[in-house]
Design goal:
Chain lengths: ~250, ~270
Amino acid sequence: MKNLILVERLNFRYQKAVVLEDVSFSVDSGDYLGIIGPNGGGKTTLIKLILGLLKPDSGNIRLFTGAIDTNKRSFRIGYVPQMPSQKDFIFPATVHEIVKSGRTARVGLFKRFSRVDLEAVDQIMEQTGIIQYKDRLLAHLSGGERQRAYIARALAGNPDLLIMDEPVIGVDLAAKEQFYGFLSSLNQELGLTILFITHELGVVAKEVKNILCLNRRLIHHGSPENFIKEEYLEKLYGNKVSSMFHMH
Amino acid sequence: MFEFVKYDFMIRAIIAGIVIAIIGPMIGIFLVVRRYSLLADTLAHVSLAGVAIGLLTKINPIITATVVSVLSVLGIEKLKSGNKELGESLLALFLWGGLALAIIIISIADGFNASLYSYLFGSITSVTRQDLVMIIILGVVTLFVIGGFFKEFFLISFDEEQAKINGIKVKTLNLILLILTAVCVSFAIRIVGVILVGALMVIPVISAMKFNRNFVQTLWISIGLSLVSVLLGISASYYFDFASGGSIVLTAILIFLFSLGLNRFFIKS
C-alpha cells in the first residue's frame, strides 16, 4: 500500500501563535480517516496545508509521493469546504453548473466540456441524490441539498483523495446516516481515500478506519479502538464527553 | 425614423455602442458576482485623470486613459494583497485619488472645458474612426479571452480556493480579467462618460439576475438588456440631444425596475 500523503515534522504559526507543532504522519491509499480535536487545535490549518492553500513554516508535505506541486496535483484532490452561511449564495448558478465546475481542471484550458464530462457530471449527481435539483439555483436549496451539491462537485473530477471540513454541519440526522453510508461505499467500492474533519465523536468511532487526533501536536493516529482504549478523550475534552463517546 | 444612419458619426456611435454593450456585461458579471462592482467605477474615475493628461499633451485621451487605468488596476492588486483589512476602502482611495489628480491637471490646463464635458457624460458625436477601430479590437480580444477562459473564470468567481486547489492559475487569470476591465472602462468612456461607465457593466447584470436563470443564461440576458439600453439611449440622445451616458443609464435603470417587477409577480423561485 502506498503513501498518499506523507507529512514530516510540520510546523505552522499564525502570526505569533503556534498552530501546529512537529506533526508527522502518513496516510495510505484507501484510508478513511477522521480528524478530530478541540477547537483551535489546528484541524482546518492542517487540511489547508495539505491542500497547498497555506505554506508550512518548516517541514514537508508530500502528496501522491511527490512534494506539493499545484500544476501536477490538480484534479486528483476533491475538497469540500466548511459551509458558508446562507447569505453567501447570491451567485446565479444552478446545481448542474456548480457540479460541472468540479471538472474544470480535468477538461483543461481552452477546451469545452465534452459529452463524457457531462455524463460523468450527471452520474455523480445521480449518486449524490441531487439529480432532481440539477436546474435549481444554489440560492434555492436547503442546507443539506447544498451540502450534497458541494460533495458532488468535489467528486465530479474523479479524485483519488477526498478532503472535507466538517461535511455534515447543518444536515439532519437521517441525511447524515445516508451520507456516511455513501462515504463508506465510496471508500470500499471505489477505493477512494477520504479525510474529514468532524466534531461528531460518536460517528468517527463507528465509521472510519483511522482517527487522527490533533491538538496543536499529534495526539493520536491509529484505529478508533486504540483511541478509546488509551483514553485520550478525557485528556482532551474532560470526563463527560468521554463517557458519551463510550456509549456509542 | 432611422434617418440617423445617414450620418457617419451615428454609425460609428452605434457600432461602438453595440460592442461596448456586449462586452460590458461579459466582464461585469464576474465583477458583480464577486461583489467587486465598485472596481469599474473606480477605474472610470481614475481614467478621468488619464483623459486630462491626454487633453493636456494632445495625445488621444482614450489611450492615456487606458494606460492610467491599467496602471491603477495593477496598483490596486498589489496593495490589496498586503492590506486585506482595507477592503473596499482601497477602491475608494483610488477613486478619490484619480478624481483629485484629474481636477489638478484640469485646473492647470484651464481651457478644455467643452471637450471634458463629453468625457464626463458621454457623447455620441465624439467617437472617432480611430476610437472605433480600437473598440472593435477590444471587443474581439474580450470575446476570445472570456470565451476561452469562461469555465476557469466561472470557477474562480464562485470559489477561488477550489480553483487554486485544482491547480488553476488564479493569479494570472485574475490579472487578465482586471486588465480587461480597465481597458473596457476606458474605451467605454466615449459613449457613456466617466461618471456612468460603471453602470453599464453592472446594471444589466443585476437586472438579468432578477430572472433567476442559470449563469450562462443570466449572461445572455444581461447582454440583451445592455444592448436595448445602449440602442434606446443612443437614439434618445440623437432625437432629444441628451448626453448619451445619461439616457443609456436611465434606460438601463428603467429596465432594472421592470425586471424587479417581473421577478416579484411572475418569476417563481
